[in-house]
Each structure stands twice: as structure tokens, then as C-alpha cells.
Amino acid sequence: xxxxxxxxxxxxxxxxxxxxxxxxxxxxxxxxxxxxxxxxxxxxxxxxxxxxxxxxxxxxxxxxxxxxxxx
Length: 71
Fold this sequence. Notes:
With 71 residues, the protein is mainly α. It has helices at residues 9-32, 34-38, 44-66. It is built from three helices and no strands.
């Protein structure tokens, strides 16, 4: 077992991959989830900001793929 605070390089890469994937999933859910629209929980400006954030995370994913961190 790995002791607390001591992560292998593989574990670090897994955290990065997982975080990128989770960010995209969560942002897309917020932007597209019908209940959020129905309850008017988000303004148009906020939705646009989240769409921009999705593009930022996609760019991060592309660079991670270019570096061989993600497939």
C-alpha cells in the first residue's frame, strides 16, 4: 500500500485524468440538465460561462492527450 501523502506517478496521472473527465461531465450536466432549465436555476450569462469552462477543460484534455497522459 502507498502511505498517505506518497503517490506514485501513475496515481498522479490517474487523478489528473479522472479530474478532467469529471469536470467535463459535471459541467455538461449543469448546462444541459432539463431540471436546471425548468427551475430557472441558471441565468443565460452563467450558462455561457459554463460553456466557456467546458471549452477550457476540453483544451486541457487535448494537451493531456498530446502529452500521452490521456488516450
